[in-house]
Amino acid sequence: MASFAIEGGHPIEGTVSVSGNKNAAFPLIAASLLTDETVTLDNVPQIDDVDAMLAILEGLGVYVSKEGSQLTLRADKLHSHAPDARLFSRIRGGLNLMGPLLARRGAFQVGGAAGGDDIGRRRIDTHLLVFDQLGAAVVHPNSGRFELKAPGRLQAADILLDEASVTATQNAVMAASLAQGTTILRNTASEPHVQELCHLLVAMGCPIEGIGSNTLHVHGQERLTGASATVGPDYMEVGSFIGLGAITRGQLRIANVAPDHLRMLEMVFCQRLGVRMDLQEDPQAARTGYTLVLPDEQTLRVRPDFGGAIPKIDDAPWPAFPPDVMSMAVVVASQAQGTVLIHEKMFESRLYFVDKLVAMGAQIIVCDPHRVVVVGPSRLVGQQVSSPDIRAGMALVLAALSAEGRTIIGNIEQIDRGYQRVDEKLRALGARIERTDA
Q1: pTM for the whole structure
Q2: Which of 117, 181, 343, 422 is the most exposed place for a label (fewest CB within 10 A)?
Q3: Residue 334 domain boundaries
Q4: Are residues 138 and 273 in the same domain?
Q5: Which stretches does DSSP call E strand in 70-180?
Q6: Which residues carry out catalysis?
């Protein structure tokens, strides 16, 4: 098991470029199964989870060519609807394969559950509701394998999702793209990665109305063509680096950010926790043209609610504060003057990692699985800890870089699943971080 050895307290300064969004890469890769023509993707993050997804596709008969951050995919020899169960169990993104395989081959089968972070129950009932209304059914639901079948071509329907699930929305849109007729999807997720998928499907020949809203009209086609797309910047990584710049000394420049993705990050980090940052046009940021600058010597202070009441930071579906950035908000709050309630609404195990921050010296009261009270600022001291999931692992890296002394973070394979060569990026900024392999 690999680990990071981090010596905290050193200035972090320079420019770091944002990688592509892994949560956009998964559905864009899966969408290549909807056509027998070539799909080309650029700015794909080079991380372990994406490698696992590509290995699954190769096992299904898909041609995969990878050159740096560019991918070429062609599913003209797709011969299976059963992803490798071992690989499928490693990543949550494998769920994106259900919709396109059902639409293209009329079936989906796997001998186990999807993987991903252990942050609480992650239901797939919304996916099944969508597939049922499009004409597919679960076969042998109580057996050791999971199987979906459609008796013929999927049929369009007017579907109300019982929750605004990102992956269920993506599966619904992909399945509906080859269904007969126009499917109306209501209460859909509208995150940037959902929008990116919709734009790719439009480029492949499937008209979609309402992109960016919570109601989508998907006009199903008999076949789709090849197309190309660029994976957008990972706003979860942006949130992570905002947290880093807020709690360490030195000026940090975050290149290739998307201004439209920053509204709620600014509301929480700037208005709630006192982080100072400035969005600048930057011709050197070639992909988006914008760089976010966090100046040196941050003065973090919790802004109380009206009347001096303790404020709350909570998460919700887009465009509200993203749950994948909540772990970073906890660390920043631990270094801000004042008291704030953190309410993680979506996953009951997301906040379990705070016991590791408490061991490092953070003043945090655990109210219940969904809520913690953070009192700051706290003096953090290096400890030996372990990364329980991708985002908590990155939050621990932030804490270690601001702490006194040496921190050892184990199980960093979790961090590698979501962050592209993060230790190399951090060393380029002056961080004292080393990777050791067991």
Answers
A1: 0.91
A2: 181
A3: 3-19+233-436
A4: no
A5: 70-74, 107-110, 137-139, 146-149, 158-160
A6: 117
**CB-based burial, 41-80: b 16+ in 10 Å, e otherwise:** bebbbebbbbebbbbbbeebebebeeeebebbbbbeebee
Burial 156-190 (b: 16+ CB within 10 A, else e): bbebebeebbbbbbbbbbbbbbbbbeebbbebbbb
Beta pairing partners, 433 = 6
pLDDT reading at 116 higher than 50? no
User: Looking at the 3D structure of the chain, how many domains does it have?
Assistant: 2
- Contact of 179 with 155, CB cutoff 8 Å: yes
* Percentage of the chain exceeding pLDDT 70: 96
CA distance 42 to 46: 11
CATH number of domain containing 192: 3.65.10.10
pLDDT tens column, 237-274: 999 999 999 999 999 999 999 999 999 999 999 999 99
Question: 210: closest CA among 176, 186, 227?
Answer: 186
Q: How far is CA 226 from the centre of its chain?
A: 26
